[in-house]
Amino acid sequence: MALLNTYKKPQTKSVEDYAFVMNKIVSYIMWFMFFATIVYLFGFLPDSPEFVLDDYFKINGFTILIWAVVTFFSAIINSFSVNYLKGFEYHSKFVGLSFGFTLSVMLLVISNHIIPFIFSWFIMGVFMAKLIGVNSSWGEAREASKFTQKYFLASTLFLSVGILFLAFQTDHFTLSKLMLDFDTLPKYMVIISGICIIMAAIIQSAIFPFHRWLLSAMTAPTPASALMHAGFVNGAGILLTLFSALIVASNTFNVLFFIGGLTAIIAQFTKLLQVNVKQKLACSTIAQMGFMVMQCGLGFFNAAVVHLILHGFYKAYLFLSSGEGIELSKPQKKLKVRITIPQAILVIVYGVLGAMFFTALTGEGKAMDSGIFLKLIVAITIGQMTYNIVKQKILSVFQKIVVPPALFFSGIAIYALIYNGVTSLMADMPMVAKALPLSSIQVAFGIIFLAGFFIMKLGIYRQVPWLYVKLLNISQPYKKTILNYK
C-alpha cells in the first residue's frame, strides 16, 4: 500500500524541518543506546551480572539482549524514515510515537514489580495502535487504530488478571518472587493464571483466532509496519519466556504447542492466497509467530527468543524493501510444483545432514524428546532451501550440489552461535530450555503438521474449493479498514 496515498496535504517548511531534526535526534539516541548495550553485552559475556533496583527494576543478560535488539530495530527504522517520511503530514507524530513505543518495550523487560510491568504492556499497545492510525485524516486508518486497540486492551486485561490473581494469593508483587512460589498454590489457580498469560501473549502476537487485527493494521506507514512486525508482535516470546516457570507449573505446554502449530499451518496457507505485498508479509508474520509459540510449547524458550530476534531482522528488511520489490516485480505465470527423483533425493539427504549438523552444534534433538521437533523444523527448512536452488534452470548440476550445503552449513553455524549465546545470557532465568518427553499429542500433531506442509507445497488445497474459500475468508482484514471512506 503506497504511502503517498495516505495523507492529504504536505507539511509547511518549518514543520517539515522540525520533524526532520526530531527524527535525526531520535535516530542518534537509539544508535547510541544500541552500541552501549552491545558494549555491555560483550564486556560481561559469558557471565552477565544481575542488578535489582529497589525490587521495581531488574537488569540481567536477557534484559540487555532485548534492549540491544529493540534499540537496533528502532535506530534502523527511524534512520530509514528520515527521508522516507519526508513531507508526510504526520512525520513528527510518527517519530514521537515510535520513540515512545521503543521506551515502553525497554520498560517492560526491565520491570520486576508487577505495576510497571502491566503498565508497560498496556502502553505498548497504546503506542502501536496510535502508530497504526498515525494518519488520523484517513478514515480507514482511524478504524484500524480503534479495532487493534480493542485487541490490545483485551491482552492487557488477561495479563492483569493472570498476574494479580497470583500476586494476591502469594502476597508477592515482584516477578522474581512470584515465579518461585507456585508450590503453595492450588493447581487450579496456577492453571487459570497460566491460561490468562497465554491469552495475553497470543492476542498480541496475532495467533489464530486473534490474527485479524494484524491483517487490519496495513494502514500504518511502512516504517511503522516494520516496527510492528519486527518488535511488537514478538511480545509473546518475551512474555512467555518471562513466565516460563508458570507455564511449567501449570503444565500448559500442549496448549501452546497446538495453538502455535495450528497457526503456523493456517497462516502459511493463507499467505499463498494474498495478492497484496503487505498482506503477504502479515500472513508470514502470523506463521512465524506460530512457530515461536510452538517452540515455547516444546519447552525451548531460548529457541523462541532466537526466533523472535532473527524474525525481527528478516521482517524489518522485507517491509523496508517492499517498495523496491513492488517496483521491480512483474506479473508471472505461477509455476507448477514438479520435482524429479534425483532432486527429491538431494532434498532429503541435505535436509537430514542439516538436521544432524544442527544437533551437533546445539546439542538439541539427541534424545527422543521434544527437541526432535526442532531438528525436524531445521530439516524442513534445509529441504525447502535445497529445492528452491535445485529447481533453478540457470544453475549447473555441480552448482546445485555444492551451493546448498555451503549455504546451510554456514547458516546453521551462525544460528548455533546465536542460539548458544542467547542460552548463555538467559542462564539465570528460571527456565531456559526444558525438553519434554514425547507425548502422543505431540506425535499426532507432528504428523498433521507434516501433512499440512506437503499439501501446501504441492498446491493440493487449490483443488478443494471449500477449503480455498475458507482460507481466503479468514485472511481478510476488518471490513471498516478497507475502502470504507471516500
Automatic annotation (TrEMBL):
<dbReference type="InterPro" id="IPR003945">
    <property type="entry name" value="NU5C-like"/>
</dbReference>
<feature type="transmembrane region" description="Helical">
    <location>
        <begin position="372"/>
        <end position="390"/>
    </location>
</feature>
<dbReference type="GO" id="GO:0016020">
    <property type="term" value="C:membrane"/>
</dbReference>
<dbReference type="GO" id="GO:0012505">
    <property type="term" value="C:endomembrane system"/>
</dbReference>
<feature type="transmembrane region" description="Helical">
    <location>
        <begin position="94"/>
        <end position="115"/>
    </location>
</feature>
<feature type="transmembrane region" description="Helical">
    <location>
        <begin position="402"/>
        <end position="421"/>
    </location>
</feature>
<keyword id="KW-0472">Membrane</keyword>
<feature type="transmembrane region" description="Helical">
    <location>
        <begin position="231"/>
        <end position="249"/>
    </location>
</feature>
<feature type="transmembrane region" description="Helical">
    <location>
        <begin position="21"/>
        <end position="42"/>
    </location>
</feature>
<feature type="transmembrane region" description="Helical">
    <location>
        <begin position="339"/>
        <end position="360"/>
    </location>
</feature>
<keyword id="KW-1133">Transmembrane helix</keyword>
<feature type="transmembrane region" description="Helical">
    <location>
        <begin position="151"/>
        <end position="168"/>
    </location>
</feature>
<dbReference type="GO" id="GO:0008137">
    <property type="term" value="F:NADH dehydrogenase (ubiquinone) activity"/>
</dbReference>
<dbReference type="GO" id="GO:0015990">
    <property type="term" value="P:electron transport coupled proton transport"/>
</dbReference>
<feature type="transmembrane region" description="Helical">
    <location>
        <begin position="441"/>
        <end position="460"/>
    </location>
</feature>
<keyword id="KW-0812">Transmembrane</keyword>
<feature type="transmembrane region" description="Helical">
    <location>
        <begin position="255"/>
        <end position="273"/>
    </location>
</feature>
<dbReference type="Pfam" id="PF00361">
    <property type="entry name" value="Proton_antipo_M"/>
</dbReference>
<feature type="domain" description="NADH:quinone oxidoreductase/Mrp antiporter transmembrane">
    <location>
        <begin position="111"/>
        <end position="326"/>
    </location>
</feature>
<feature type="transmembrane region" description="Helical">
    <location>
        <begin position="62"/>
        <end position="82"/>
    </location>
</feature>
<dbReference type="InterPro" id="IPR001750">
    <property type="entry name" value="ND/Mrp_TM"/>
</dbReference>
<protein>
    <submittedName>
        <fullName>NADH dehydrogenase</fullName>
    </submittedName>
</protein>
<feature type="transmembrane region" description="Helical">
    <location>
        <begin position="188"/>
        <end position="210"/>
    </location>
</feature>
<dbReference type="GO" id="GO:0042773">
    <property type="term" value="P:ATP synthesis coupled electron transport"/>
</dbReference>
<dbReference type="GO" id="GO:0003954">
    <property type="term" value="F:NADH dehydrogenase activity"/>
</dbReference>
